[in-house]
Amino acid sequence: MNLETVKAVKELLSTPQNMVIIPHKNPDGDAIGSTLALWHFFKNNGQDATVIVPNDYPKFLKWMPGSDQILNFEKENHQCKDKIENATVVFTLDFNHLGRVGQLEEPLEEAAKKIPFVMIDHHQAPSDYAKIMYSDVEMSSTCQMVYNFIEAVDGVEKITSEMASCLYTGIMTDTGSFKFRSTTGETHRIVADLIDRGAENTEIHHRVFDTNTPARLKLLGVALNNMKILEQFKTAYITLSQDELDAHNYQKGDTEGFVNYGLTLEGINFAVIFIENKEEGIIKISFRSIGDFSVNEFARSHFNGGGHNNAAGGRSEKSLQETALYFESLLKDYKNQLAV
């Protein structure tokens, strides 16, 4: 954080505030971990704060300290709207465009006309809705940025075991258990400090990764059976239809991490998963890559998405089959890039 941003944040926090803290739609470990850690920090320092999620999130994250205090906009609509209308400041975490919050977009746009917004995020191409922006695309995770935020306002010694657990979870999940290129020495130093402050790393890993249901593992089997490998493009992709999800009692978060299996294949640099969502009328897409191939640019150019250089998301309004065929048709233009 630069000195100007730190000064603005300290001035904002110098007086009591009614804070609302919001992650993106379909929040993941980094989104939930960062919002809850910040919520704990503010509550422990006498501020009024509420975390509002646009919609539900996976069960394997609901053990996190403070999770039972989160409000769900889809289920607690009136209460959430009241909180936003009475807020004096809104913190938005792990996203940088209000289009990422689903039905929360309209009330947040109205709030942005009246009160300051603070953005903490590590995705590319931020929009300008926030008065105070802490944006850094080189960061491993928003949780690492929240740690830096707390450090900048002289609050590291106030990090509790609950906060440490939330921050560790977000860093762990957004770095692929510390294997992605965005994981730096500083990331590991922060993680070490979080463990010293009470984050039980073995238990956290168990709670996130070792609570599968038989249905989820069978769905993984379907996904792997559906995988198509395009060796000439060093690409592998998975498709999952709504019928396949329904047949395996799909629960939110069940497909988390499936896309990464393609990258475990020798010689594959680009992995994708296409998941049919009939309720929303779209195909949800996750992109992953190894090396310099930018899935962020690919997603922005062709699938109304974006994210990071090696991890991004997108969507398609075509059918599942049409989307996969369209995707394959694009690859010839990227053959040279994918060959590196």
Describe this structure in words.
- This protein is α/β, with parallel strands linked by helices and 340 residues long.
- It has helices at residues 3-13, 29-44, 77-85, 105-112, 142-152, 161-174, 185-196, 201-209, 214-226, 242-247, 295-302, 320-330, 335-339, and strands at residues 18-22, 48-53, 71-72, 89-93, 117-121, 132-135, 228-230, 235-240, 270-277, 282-289, 306-307, 311-316.
- The longest helix has 16 residues, at 29-44.
- Helix 6 crosses helix 8 (201-209).
- The chain is globular and about 60 Å long.
- Strand 4 (89-93), helix 4 and strand 5 form a beta-alpha-beta unit.
- It folds into 2 domains: 3-209, inorganic pyrophosphatase (n-terminal core) (Alpha-Beta Complex), CATH 3.90.1640; 214-339, Diaminopimelate Epimerase, Chain A, domain 1 (Roll).
- The strands form 2 sheets. It has a 6-stranded parallel sheet, with helices on both faces. Strands 7-8-9-10-12-11 form a 6-stranded mixed sheet.
